[in-house]
């Protein structure tokens, strides 16, 4: 058999061209499908990160102020839209001074503002912590709080935090 003198026909060329075309189209579909899966995965990871970050941040703030009289839910005035909004007030004593940390939502962010007790709360002066659409807190019992955080994408995260120190000194119930 002499392979060097084999006659090549147009059918052989078209077969190879069709095979290459099928490979290229299949590779294109695999890349496009993979890109869509990757985009969905990244979106889900970002959503989960934002949810976990918000939950962890609020939980750790409460844990660090978990003492009698350390946590309070309060309505704060002086907002940019003129309405009252719910804020979480966290009390801490350092030396002979008492400080209040406010956690609240303003301008699309979960914010934190810390000042010495007696200082006028400035709604616009807080530090941006995380981009959220809404943040609400409700006192369920003397030691349990219900939080609801609505992310920018509309997903709502509800969670509960319990104080280990027992009652918090809040007298609104």
Describe it for me?
This protein is α+β, with helices and mostly antiparallel strands. It has one helix at residues 10-64; strands at 71-76, 85-94, 97-106, 109-116, 127-139, 144-151, 156-162. Strands 1-2-3-4-5-6-7 form a 7-stranded antiparallel beta sheet, covered by helices on one side. The longest helix is centred in the first third of the chain and has 55 residues, at 10-64. The chain is rod-shaped, with a radius of gyration of 29 Å. 15% of the residues are buried.
Summarize the structure.
This protein is of the alpha+beta class and 173 residues long. It is built from one helix and seven strands; from the N terminus they run H-E-E-E-E-E-E-E. It has one domain.
* Helix and strand sequence: HEEEEEEE
What gap, in angstroms, lies between the N and C termini? 99 Å
Give me the secondary-structure category: alpha+beta
Overall 3D geometry?
A: rod-shaped
The strand line-up of the biggest sheet is 1-2-3-4-5-6-7
Q: How much is the radius of gyration in Å?
A: 29 Å
Number of helices: 1
Helix content: 25-40%
Average residue pLDDT = 84
Give the number of DSSP strands.
7
Largest sheet: 7 strands, antiparallel
What's the structural domain tally? 1
Low-confidence region ranges: 168-173
Strand content: 35-45%
């Amino acid at each position: 058999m002499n392979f060097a003198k084999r006659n090549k026909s147009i059918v052989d060329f078209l077969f190879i061209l069709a095979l290459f075309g099928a490979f290229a189209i299949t590779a294109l579909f695999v890349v496009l499908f993979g890109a869509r899966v990757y985009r969905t995965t990244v979106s889900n990871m970002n959503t989960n990160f934002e949810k976990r970050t918000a939950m962890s941040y609020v939980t750790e703030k409460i844990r660090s102020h978990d003492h009698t009289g350390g946590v309070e839910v309060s309505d704060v005035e002086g907002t940019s839209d003129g309405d009252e909004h719910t804020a979480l007030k966290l009390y801490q004593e350092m030396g002979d001074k008492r400080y209040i940390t406010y956690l609240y939502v303003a301008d699309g962010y979960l914010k934190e503002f810390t000042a010495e007790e007696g200082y006028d709360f400035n709604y616009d002066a807080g530090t941006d912590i995380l981009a959220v659409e809404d943040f609400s807190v409700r006192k369920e019992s003397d030691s349990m709080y219900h939080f609801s955080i609505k992310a920018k994408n509309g997903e709502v995260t509800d969670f509960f935090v319990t104080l280990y120190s027992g009652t918090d000194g809040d007298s609104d119930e």
